[in-house]
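Saturday, quiet lab. Running sequence design on the structure tokens for the scaffold JK sent over.
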């Protein structure tokens, strides 16, 4: 960013996380080791008692069946092949956990027995940082801002697509707009967020630090997981669930600085308010995306509810969307540079540049 001529600041932040060591499920006289769990590690409860419900992986992996299962306040038990993330969407059990298939079948046979879950772990304080580059052309109004963003951390893999690709496109866009022959008549910020993979913590920290400035933000365009064959832009849900005042945070204050998972996904935060259902893609932005794609000769697919940093800003009432072009190898050891198509990155960069230019 400095080489592109931007003013750059590094903004460190701290967050709380949880190190999950082990958990044991006791049912009657039988016990089983817990391989992963969705719960609230910040509630201070290390012993949970209650009624247990056993769910086959096929039920967990089918959203409709999972939604209709009787889990209210119960200890939901499933096995490998089921995704704990599904429970964070439904959010009705008190805790959800994974056990080995053999343990699942053995425990399932003990109908009516009282269940007790014992969890061992400890809370930690961790550090990360956001990097903020500012482009303020001479004579640009002080109150008009467009933000382009991408997260710079990775999870369970090298992170070439998720999300070095997004950072690469952001840096090229910074260079492009800084060297543009006719500078755009507004200020721009180019922000890379830390700790997105731990619960969009960099975005939350930025929202807290820059809330007053964000009242003047006209658009945040996020880039996450690029280099694949197609272009997806979040825009199908339009405007919904946003506050009356721009930059008014709806996220629970006690969760702003807390991780929602660990780096290995052995645990996930199970709280009903962790991701308010909000979208802020008004008609003018939808039209700008369509016109930009048409003018650049690019095809794209409108989608909804992609999980990335833009959602923190959308739920705070800031116009925000996300572009993705996934090669399909994110969060794996195969997410290497060989999976990223440079021509795909160029197509996304052209689309975003055209949107910014046409939307203003």
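Result came back. Writing it out in full:
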């Amino acid at each position: 960013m400095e080489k592109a001529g931007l003013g750059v600041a590094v903004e460190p932040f701290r967050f709380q996380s949880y190190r999950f060591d082990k958990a044991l499920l006791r049912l009657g006289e039988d016990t089983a080791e817990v391989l992963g769990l969705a719960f609230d590690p910040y509630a201070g409860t290390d012993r949970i008692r209650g009624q247990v419900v056993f769910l086959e992986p096929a039920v967990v992996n089918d959203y409709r069946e999972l939604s209709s299962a009787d889990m209210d306040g119960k200890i939901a038990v499933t096995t490998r092949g089921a995704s704990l993330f599904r429970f964070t969407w439904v959010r009705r059990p008190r805790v959800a956990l994974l056990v080995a298939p053999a343990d699942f079948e053995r425990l399932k046979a003990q109908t009516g027995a009282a269940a007790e879950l014992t969890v061992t772990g400890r809370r930690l304080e961790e550090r990360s940082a956001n990097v903020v580059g500012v482009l303020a052309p001479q004579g640009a109004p002080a109150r008009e801002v467009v933000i382009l963003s991408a997260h710079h951390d990775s999870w369970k893999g090298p992170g070439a697509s998720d999300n070095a690709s997004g950072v690469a496109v952001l840096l090229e866009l910074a260079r492009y707009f800084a060297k543009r022959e006719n500078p755009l008549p507004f200020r721009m910020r180019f922000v890379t967020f830390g700790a997105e993979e731990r619960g969009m913590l960099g975005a939350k920290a930025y929202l807290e630090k820059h809330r007053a400035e964000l009242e003047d933000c006209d658009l945040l365009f996020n880039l996450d997981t690029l280099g694949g064959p197609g272009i997806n832009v979040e825009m199908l849900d339009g405007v919904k669930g946003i506050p009356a005042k721009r930059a008014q945070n709806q996220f629970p204050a006690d969760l702003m600085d807390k991780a929602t998972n660990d780096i290995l996904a052995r645990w996930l935060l199970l709280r009903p308010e962790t991701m308010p259902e909000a979208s802020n893609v008004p008609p003018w932005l939808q039209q700008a995306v369509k016109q930009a794609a048409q003018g650049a000769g690019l095809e794209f697919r409108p989608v909804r509810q992609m999980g990335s940093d833009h959602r923190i800003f959308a739920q705070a009432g800031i116009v925000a969307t996300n572009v993705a072009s996934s090669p399909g190898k994110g969060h794996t050891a195969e997410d290497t540079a060989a999976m990223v198509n440079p021509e795909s990155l160029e197509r996304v960069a052209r689309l975003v540049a055209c949107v910014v230019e046409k939307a203003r």
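Notes for JK: The first strand starts at residue 7 and ends at 27. Residues 157 and 209 are 30 Å apart (CA to CA). Ask whether to fix the surface positions before the next round.
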